[in-house]
From TrEMBL:
The chain crosses the membrane at residues 27-50, 56-77, 98-123, 153-181. This is CDP-alcohol phosphatidyltransferase. The keyword Magnesium does not apply. Keywords: Membrane, Transmembrane, Transmembrane helix. It comes from Nocardiopsis rhodophaea.
Amino acid sequence: MNGLYSLKPWFAARLALVRRGLVERGVGPAVLTWAGVGFGAAAGAAIALLPSGAAAGVAVAALLVARLACANLDGGVARESGRSTRFGFVVNELGDRLAEFAVLAGCLFVAPSGVVLAAALAATLPSWVALAGAAAGGERVQGGPVGKTERCALFVVLAATGAAVPVLVLMAAGSLITAVVRLVRVARALSEADETSAEPDYAVAGAVS
């Protein structure tokens, strides 16, 4: 169920030279995080202002690829430059949410506000579930079926076709399904961790006796 998220290692490898160049030039990870928000806002503006069609689809695709690149680079630059901090993680998450909301803001010009709001709320649920699982001590679950990358692809379809309402409804439904899928994965992982921690350590018990 990882969907397009499975392409992340390939995408990161393509950005390796860019990442090293940014590290050498001392570019901070926060700059990249906020650049990603800017690209999201530009994609939202393109959806709002450009007539639907191939040109709009290409423009939104290019801007959202840049947005995903920034989301990939900020963490990589932080790690390679020794700037990783716990607050940096918070900034990264905030940037991801703001970038997506910025794209959805552009959708307010091409779809009813209720539909856009429903898509916006549903789109946050997969991340909430993943973060809750991580806060409980598990690994953060990622992937689809409609994760961040798939939602970007749906924005491109929206811009290219003009079918704003059907695409946003699909995004909302897919995000809800993704949240449920992630919740099941989190529940299984935490349950297995609980069972493992509850098992007696026979080696230690034998040594003590």
